[in-house]
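Hello again, I could really use a second opinion on something today. I've been staring at a protein lately and its backbone has me curious. Please have a think about how the structure follows from the sequence. I owe you a coffee for this, so here goes:
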Amino acid sequence: MGSTIPCDVAIVGGGLAGGLIALALHARHPGLDVRIIEAAPHLGGDHVWSFFGSDIAQQDRWLVAPLTVHDWQGYDVAFPHLARQIDATYHSVTSERLHAVIRTTLPAPAVMLGRKVLAASATAVVLADGDRIEAGGVIDCRGPGDLSVLELGWQKFVGQELLLHAPHGTTGPRVMDATVEQIDGYRFVYCLPFAADRMFVEDTYYSDTPHVDRAALGLRIAAYAADRGWQVDSVLRTEAGVLPITLGGDFEAYWRSSGANVAKAGMRAGLFQPTTGYSLPDAVRLAVRLAERTDFSGKALAGFTHDYARAAWKQGAFYRMLSAMMFRAGDPAERWRIIERFYRLDPTLITRFYAGRSSLKDKIRILTGKPPVPVGSAIRVLRTTAWR
């Protein structure tokens, strides 16, 4: 017979979204009994999350600052007909730092690792070992709901942290190198210099399918390193992932697919940038807004997170339309032309775009001029449901 564990707020899932909420609630409400429940033996998985400085509002940076392990001033991009340096800050957070900060910040009983969840409601969590958590409110952060109700493309990748035989001589990130062979849609390589002799290299694809051939991508990373003249002594770490790129769909159906009356965050709430799939900026914003609240009942949390995610979905209509244009209006092997054209625009427009804060003037500028896709196809895409 299992035991019953009472608490004020139960966070189901110890990934990025759940971890940020736990830290924000503890910081703003230190007397609140918060529990974060994770099936794995550690929090955060095995990831590197990166973001532009402009992605996080100044008043929200207190939450992410302790988690940031790498900071750079400026980054570059490379395309067949364009090489450019962008003067903007760029930062990375790692799973290891997220785990360490949560473990040292929250009381020991608050972090429940190796605990598989069977079911969650607005006020209760049932664990596989027979224990039950009775909470004032539950927030479900366990990953995506039913993605089949959304119209999607995919950003998929394999990343490796490489220990090099000699210093690489690179001072900043290369956020996109699209001079590589275009395979399986829009392909680019992403490089982060973690130390003088350590380079994180990620082989990334904007693809029509979510399948990841880890072995093939690993070989392509090795070939890329060799082409750059980097002799690899060892691969320190490998990660792989598939992120949804939203073209359209039914938000309410997506929300209901993982429980209509349960509070949600992160991918489960549909909170990710429609054109990149990245979730860190949205995760920070929601965590801070939740910590500003005083009512943590299950009903109040469910209503608040639903309305917040619904508003974010509406704000993302322009970006879903652009995603649909990329995936539906042109040849997959020519998608790089769309991104290359985008990176010719003003740097401040680019930073606002990634932050999801494009102005009306930005939107007009992005859409004007000769499109890098067939005009007829572009018009057909504009008539689809991507704006909903």
